[in-house]
Design brief:
The chain has 317 residues and is of the alpha/beta class. The protein is 41% helix and 20% strand. It has two domains: 140 residues, NAD(P)-binding Rossmann-like Domain (Rossmann fold), CATH 3.40.50.720; 165 residues, L-2-Hydroxyisocaproate Dehydrogenase, Chain A, domain 2 (Alpha-Beta Complex), CATH 3.90.110. The relative contact order is 0.14. It binds nicotinamide-adenine-dinucleotide. One of its GO terms (molecular function) is L-lactate dehydrogenase (NAD+) activity.
Length: 317
């Protein structure tokens, strides 16, 4: 795949879809971006607005409002369409029923137009929607990637980096499992600059203060709601997360990110989608990385899997 032929279709041109398109253009990672939305004016307006910004960017690219026939030769289709989130809601799982209806109609349209690339799923509840899209599309498991806990991982690394005044990229700590209340952290394998996190905590007590791992996980889980409560959506973090995943697909990067992927016995889990560290390349989810979890972490991962699987019976497949 070369830059010249690369094409990403984004279904849902709302806050997340439009910001993802802008992030892709800003990083100049593909030649053509297409926006699809039931609200055609919104898709047209966002595309036009972004078209004018390309004049100031690093290379020439194209963005337009399109339709499902654009999926035929797309490398990646991003699903971010959604019903509006109720203002007082604090649980992504409440989005299941409306998301299911919307996602089903979209996947039917994408597949009937001959799509043969990789789905990147953002719509919530993202782990359940990723599984649902796998079932509906009948594509191989590796071609469906949910953004999952990539964003939560960025939030955790950001919190840790602030404590020690570091670049967040120097922190390697994965948030895993459900993108939601049952998510957990692989603390046992977490490092900062190659140093075990527990040692960093102990050796820098003046900066660690009384912040515990439980408190960090709580802050990570609440970060999205803190933003949502103030402005009614979150868009930049998720758009950057999706862009990193799409870049790894288009550039065949083999980058490891914690994404929602179809498990084949890894971590003792089967036939379901959950976030675990995964090598991402032009084939989508190339390989799942099994990191060594502490016994209690493995139990939390299992518990989260049960939460997610509990909703599969509600899916209309
Ligand atoms: P939004 O309401 O701003 O945008 C949703 C868009 O989808 C709207 O423009 C709407 O017209 C469009 N749409 C609805 N039905 C459609 C259909 N059948 N076909 C095409 N388009 C359709 O919402 P948002 O803030 O952009 O959020 C989008 C989704 O992303 C939500 O499910 C949200 O929960 C999710 N999200 C996920 C993460 C994550 O980490 N996975 C982070 C943030 C948001």
């Amino acid at each position: 795949m070369s830059f010249k032929d690369s094409k990403v279709v984004i279904v849902g041109a709302g806050n997340v879809g439009a910001t993802t398109a802008y992030s892709i253009l800003n990083q100049a990672i593909c030649e053509e971006v297409v926006l699809i939305d039931v609200n055609k004016d919104k898709a047209i307006a966002e595309a036009l607005d972004m078209q004018h910004s390309i004049y100031f960017m690093n290379r020439n690219m194209s963005i337009k409002a399109g339709d499902y026939s654009d999926c035929r030769d797309a490398d990646v289709v991003v699903i971010t369409a959604s019903a509006p989130m109720p203002k007082d809601s604090h649980n992504r799982l409440e989005m299941l029923a409306p998301s299911m209806r919307i996602v089903k109609s979209i996947v039917d349209s994408v597949m009937s137009n001959g799509f043969d690339g990789v789905f990147v799923v953002i719509s919530n509840p993202v782990d359940i929607m990723s599984y649902y899209i796998w079932k509906l599309s009948r594509l191989p498991k590796n071609r469906i990637i949910g953004t999952g806990t990539t964003l939560d991982t960025a939030r955790l690394c950001c919190e840790l980096s602030k404590m020690y005044n570091l670049d967040a990229k120097s922190v390697e700590a994965f948030v895993m499992a459900e993108h939601g209340d049952s998510e957990m952290v692989s603390w046992a394998s977490a490092t900062i600059g190659g140093k075990n996190l527990s040692d960093v905590f102990a050796d820098n007590a003046d900066r660690t203060k009384d912040i515990t791992k439980d408190e960090l996980l709580k802050r990570t889980k609440e970060a999205g709601w803190e933003i949502f409560n103030r402005k009614g959506n979150t868009c930049y973090g998720i758009a950057s997360s999706a862009t990193a995943i799409i870049k790894s697909i288009l550039f065949n990067e083999n980058r490891i990110l914690p994404v929602s992927v179809g498990l084949n016995g890894e971590y003792g889990l089967n036939n379901m989608f959950l976030s675990v560290p995964t090598i991402i390349n032009k084939n989508g989810a190339k390989e799942i990385v099994e990191i060594k979890l502490a016994d209690e972490e493995r139990a939390l991962l299992q518990k989260s899997a049960e939460v997610v699987q509990g909703f599969y019976k509600e899916l209309q497949i």
